[in-house]
Design brief:
Blueprint: E1 4-7, E2 14-15, E3 18-19, H1 23-32, E4 36-41, H2 48-57, E5 67-69, H3 70-80, E6 85-88, E7 107-110, H4 119-130, E8 135-137, E9 143-145, E10 150-152, H5 155-165, E11 170-171, H6 177-187, E12 194-198, H7 201-210, E13 214-218, E14 237-238, H8 241-248
Parallel strand pairs: 1-4, 1-12, 4-5, 6-7, 7-8, 8-11, 12-13, 13-14
Antiparallel strand pairs: 2-3, 9-10
Helix pairs in contact: 4-5
The protein binds magnesium ion.
Magnesium ion binds next to loops.
């Protein structure tokens, strides 16, 4: 029986700035039903507080201790390993790294830095990596869904730096098993009692599977027809988050 559910945010609870129909009602129903809910996001353009404020404005009653963000995990990784990172991150989350980002740099943190992902900045990052510093990636998503279409995410730039510096990035967000394990541990549930719902077949579904939990793909957000077939066995598929919940928890 499912006792805990992990939700991806963008593309599952909302698209752009619009909540997905029925999602808030479903979350509130689960909350009242005593389910353990966790929300995990690779969103690297907003601080944790901004994410929470936006969720509240869209009608989702979620608390800070239910929300796990990849930028927070990257920041904690740097603190735990006493690293001073050169940060190629979005301007909105720069303040979260201010206390850490001091030369001489002993790491590179890369996220969805948008226009700051210039040749010059990537070349500076390459130089730091070449001195033996680790590459820490907030996520390695290939693309994300904006209001209009799919856009390049940080993943392709992470790959470029991995290729040039001949090292593998430490991914702090999804699909990192460490990230999933941290969140799973907070539920106090056994793995067979936990369900992940996401719209990213690799980040959410494959990541959850590697962490040993069941996962369901939804046809909202960045989902593209056929995504479910990119995994073996194919990912279970639901129209949206409400249908996924009704399928796995029909009695609720
Ligand atoms: Mg998503």
């Amino acid at each position: 029986m499912i006792k805990a559910i992990l939700f991806d945010l963008s593309g599952v609870l909302y698209e752009g700035s619009h909540p997905i129909e029925g999602a808030a009602k479903t979350i509130n129903r689960l909350e009242h039903g005593g389910l353990i809910l966790r929300f995990i996001t690779n969103t690297s353009r907003k601080t944790k507080q901004q994410v929470l404020d936006e969720l509240h404005n869209m009608g989702f009653q979620i608390t800070g201790d239910q929300l796990f963000t990849a930028p927070e995990a990257a920041q904690q990784w740097c603190i735990a390993n006493k690293l001073n990172p050169y940060c190629l991150v979005h301007k909105n989350i720069k303040p979260e790294f201010t206390d850490l980002e001091k030369p001489p740099y002993s790491a590179v943190v890369i996220g969805d830095a948008e226009d700051d992902l210039t040749y010059q900045n990537l070349d500076t990052a390459f130089d730091i990596l070449n001195s033996g510093a680790p590459l820490i990636a907030i996520g390695n998503n290939r693309y994300y869904k904006g209001e209009d279409r799919l856009h390049l995410d940080a993943g392709p730039f992470v790959k470029a730096l991995e290729y040039a510096s001949d090292q593998n990035a430490i991914i702090t967000g999804k699909p990192s098993k460490t990230f999933f394990d941290q969140v799973i541990a907070t539920t106090g549930c056994n793995k067979h009692e936990i369900l992940m719902i996401g719209d990213d077949v690799y980040g959410d579904i494959e990541g959850a599977r590697k962490a040993g939990i069941t996962a369901c793909l939804v046809r909202t957000g960045k989902y593209q027809p056929g995504d479910e077939l990119k995994l073996t066995p194919p990912a279970p598929l639901a129209k949206d988050v409400s249908e996924a919940v009704n399928h796995y928890l029909p009695a609720l």
